[in-house]
């Protein structure tokens, strides 16, 4: 019974509602004690949410939040929810890109280290992350294993470059067919595109575009009567 419920949860059979105790007793022909033990195990594994006197329900993936006004790390934000952040590296090479070089204040022919990753929260695809860095700064990163590594950590430790600020724009986009396949989402799910210019002491050292699932990501802001807050939209 327990193994079958796990399998059905993985196949997304209970997106509307998880069966109640009596329904599971009838379906599997087992005692209420067996059902309760199975639900307890699923709860301990984080697959369902259940409490005394409440009907169990399927646990929803934790939402990743990006606070405004702070240097954001998707790696740290995912890990803070208790999930494991891992990546599949799709590209790590050196190339020229005149548009990106101009954004970094460089000559169009300047070689850039380009890193593209498909990033996961546990087993779920979360974001497609594309980063460009000046090769003269980032060449030591070409042999780094980025499957479980935060870029800013190794950029600082290997290259002596610490991203201390910059600018960022978050906008809603419609993912392409290929991007939907990578992220494992249907046509009804939107996405956010995050454009970031990262700087070290006012010097541009990173251009990044991150396409992240909108059903797993939100932008948050703190405000107060004294300081207020401002969101600039374009």
UniProtKB/TrEMBL annotation:
Residues 80-218 form the UbiC transcription regulator-associated domain. It comes from the Bacteria. The keyword DNA-binding applies. Keywords: DNA-binding, Transcription, Transcription regulation. Pfam families: GntR, UTRA. The keyword Transcription regulation applies. PANTHER family: GNTR-FAMILY TRANSCRIPTIONAL REGULATOR, MANNOSYL-D-GLYCERATE TRANSPORT/METABOLISM SYSTEM REPRESSOR MNGR-RELATED. This is GntR family transcriptional regulator. It comes from Pseudonocardia xinjiangensis.
């Amino acid at each position: 019974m327990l193994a079958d419920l796990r399998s059905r949860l993985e196949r997304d059979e209970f997106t509307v509602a998880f069966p109640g105790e009596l329904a599971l007793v009838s379906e599997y022909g087992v005692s209420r004690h067996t059902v309760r033990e199975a639900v307890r195990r699923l709860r301990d594994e984080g697959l369902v949410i259940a409490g005394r006197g409440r009907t169990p329900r399927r646990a929803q993936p934790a939402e990743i939040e990006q606070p405004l006004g702070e240097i954001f790390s998707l790696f740290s934000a995912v890990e803070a929810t208790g999930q494991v952040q891992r990546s599949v590296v799709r590209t790590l090479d050196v190339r020229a890109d005149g548009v990106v070089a101009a954004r970094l204040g460089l000559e169009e022919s300047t070689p850039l280290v380009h890193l593209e990753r498909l990033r996961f929260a546990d087993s779920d695809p979360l974001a497609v992350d594309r980063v460009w860095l000046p090769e003269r700064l980032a060449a030591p990163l070409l042999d780094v294993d980025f499957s479980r590594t935060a870029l800013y950590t190794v950029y600082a430790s290997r290259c002596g470059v610490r991203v201390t600020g910059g600018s960022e724009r978050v906008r809603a986009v419609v993912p392409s067919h290929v991007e939907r396949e990578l992220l494992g989402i249907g046509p009804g799910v939107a996405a956010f595109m995050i454009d970031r210019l990262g700087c070290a002491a006012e010097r541009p050292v990173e251009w990044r575009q991150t396409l992240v699932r909108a059903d797993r990501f939100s932008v948050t802001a703190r405000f107060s009567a004294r300081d207020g807050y401002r969101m600039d939209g374009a």
